[in-house]
């Protein structure tokens, strides 16, 4: 670890190769943070302030490597953004054992071990911040989008966010979540856009910057913890 990076804040971001994750990497660099970016397919960064770690977040060994790399390279972990997630929309009885394993592996196991390790490091430093990306469908089920596995996993993350916030409220660690509607990213083919736009009371999908801005708000809000911030075009308010 070099002395010039010793006091620089460090953000760990999962699912960082594209979409919201890539937007978060850029945003935290603009804030002046060093970034540890991880995903299964992430490429090596040209920026010396970005350390990339390739791996499947569903494998706890990836979490170990990510936090170890952050501490070895930059000396600390100030923020963890649990952005990696997978969404499989199927009628409940059509979900397979493989679907369950894939969704729970990324959405739950990936969150659990990485957050444990990050909190351990944050406690040693005297504080930190955890932000988890969930989904508005957790609070507002929609018959047009069958989503039991999303609600089972991401709903668990929203409850865990509140538990973490309370458990560590006196020890300098905040925990918050951003609950998006559908966001316009490369994962949604053009032919689905009209349907996805119509799911939102505002009549359109959100943009990556909408979620990035919400995370940055929480980053700079020292009196906010245990918050589930809905950025969903009104989905959670009703239809």
How does this model look, in words?
The chain is an alpha/beta fold. It has one domain (3-230): Rossmann fold. It contains 6 helices and 7 strands; from the N terminus they run βαββαβαβαβααβ. The protein has a 7-stranded parallel beta sheet, sandwiched between helices. α3 packs parallel to α4.
State the end-to-end distance.
Answer: 52 Å
Look at the helices and sheets and give the structural class. Answer: alpha/beta
Helix content: 25-40%
CATH topology: Rossmann fold
Query: What is the count of distinct domains?
Result: 1
SSE order, one letter for each helix or strand: EHEEHEHEHEHHE
Would you report the number of β strands? 7
Q: Report the top-level CATH class.
A: Alpha Beta
Mean pLDDT: 95
Give unreliable regions as ranges: none
Order of adjacent strands in the largest pleated sheet: 3-2-1-4-5-6-7
- Please work out how many helical segments DSSP would assign: 6
β-sheet strand percentage: 15-25%
The CATH architecture is: 3-Layer(aba) Sandwich
Major pleated sheet: 7 strands, parallel
């Amino acid at each position: 670890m070099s002395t010039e990076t010793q006091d620089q804040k460090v953000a760990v971001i999962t699912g960082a190769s594209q979409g919201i994750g890539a937007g978060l990497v850029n945003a935290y660099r603009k804030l002046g943070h060093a970034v540890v970016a991880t995903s299964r397919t992430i490429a090596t960064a040209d920026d010396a302030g970005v350390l990339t770690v390739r791996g499947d977040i569903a494998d706890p060994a990836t979490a170990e490597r990510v936090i170890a790399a952050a501490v070895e390279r930059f000396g600390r972990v100030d923020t963890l953004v649990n952005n990696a997630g997978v969404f499989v929309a199927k009628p409940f009885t059509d979900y397979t054992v493989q679907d369950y394993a894939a969704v729970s592996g990324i959405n739950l196991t990936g969150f659990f071990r990485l957050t444990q390790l990050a909190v351990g490091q944050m406690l040693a430093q005297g504080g930190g911040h955890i932000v988890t990306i969930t989904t508005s469908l957790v609070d507002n089920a929609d018959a047009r989008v069958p989503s039991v596995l999303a609600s089972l996993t991401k709903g668990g993350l929203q409850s865990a966010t509140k538990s973490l916030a309370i458990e560590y409220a006196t020890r300098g660690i905040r925990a918050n979540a951003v609950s998006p509607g559908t966001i316009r990213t490369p994962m949604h083919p053009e032919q689905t856009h009209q349907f996805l736009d119509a799911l939102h009371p505002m009549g359109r999908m959100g943009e990556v910057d909408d979620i990035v801005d919400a995370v940055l708000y929480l980053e700079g809000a020292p009196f906010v913890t245990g918050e589930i911030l809905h950025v969903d075009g009104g989905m959670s308010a009703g239809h």
